[in-house]
């Protein structure tokens, strides 16, 4: 077993079951963000949690700008964790950018994965001819400039946009603090890779059955984006959630758990 990989990504394994569920966090977050979800699955499943390099308690010394200059580098992390632990039939639950990272991993080694559960996915955040990603490129470039010049201000602006649920300021605060707790340069690179990637052509390559969890009033991945993902992803279905914002696993864990369990039961994926 390659212990370097497990240390690099701060891999933690919990749960009493044999069927593996791997939880992959979104941009600017870490595995702690899944804490409202995991208790509902610990009794019946084997849960694998990790941090991308530069996030959480990962080994920041292992960060390589070339490797992580595209989402493929992060997908390689997922595959190396799976291979190091000899995992198979993995259910990967990926939030936000990890939806695309999980897809890329499944394209490379489809035999490792049983299904993908994509929480608020977007293959491209920028508006293109015939495609509504939600952002104009110039707006994202301006956001990157703010991030470079006023990192705390950038985090304070972005956190409520992502989280919504402003009536629960503790969630907005936690997300903002998560952004600020990470290395500025690495987070800036991850932001560029996240928001300027275009994975639309990868959608039809995915062979693994997939569930899309689409939130209400999600300013980061709108209903149009969710519909586009479903239209271009074979063997996929979409559940429209009442949860608002871009982080339902934090703002409405009960509904998120309900839909994940409903999908697993429908797909006859038992513990």
Count of helical regions: 10
Structural class: alpha/beta
Please, what is the oligomeric state?
Answer: single chain
General form:
globular
> Secondary-structure element order, as H and E?
HEEEHEHEHHHHEHEHH
| Strand residue content | 15-25%
Question: Would you tell me which CATH topology applies?
Answer: Rossmann fold
> What's the architecture, going by CATH?
3-Layer(aba) Sandwich
The total count of strands amounts to 7
From the structure above, extract its key features.
271 residues; Rossmann fold; seven-stranded mixed β-sheet; 15% strand; globular
Task: Put the structure in a nutshell.
By secondary structure, the chain is of the alpha/beta class. The chain has ten helices and seven strands.
Notes on the structure:
- This protein has about 270 residues and is α/β, with parallel strands linked by helices.
- The protein has helices at about 5-10, 70-85, 95-110, 135-150, 150-165, 170-180, 185-195, 225-230, 250, 255-265, and strands at about 10-15, 20-25, 45-50, 90-95, 115-120, 210-215, 235-245.
- It has one domain (about 5-265): Alpha/Beta hydrolase fold, catalytic domain (Rossmann fold, 3-Layer(aba) Sandwich).
- A seven-stranded mixed beta sheet has the order 1-3-2-4-5-6-7, with helices on both faces.
- Helix 3 links the parallel strand 4 (about 90-95) and strand 5.
- The longest helix has 14 residues, at about 70-85.
- The model has no long low-confidence stretch (mean pLDDT about 95).
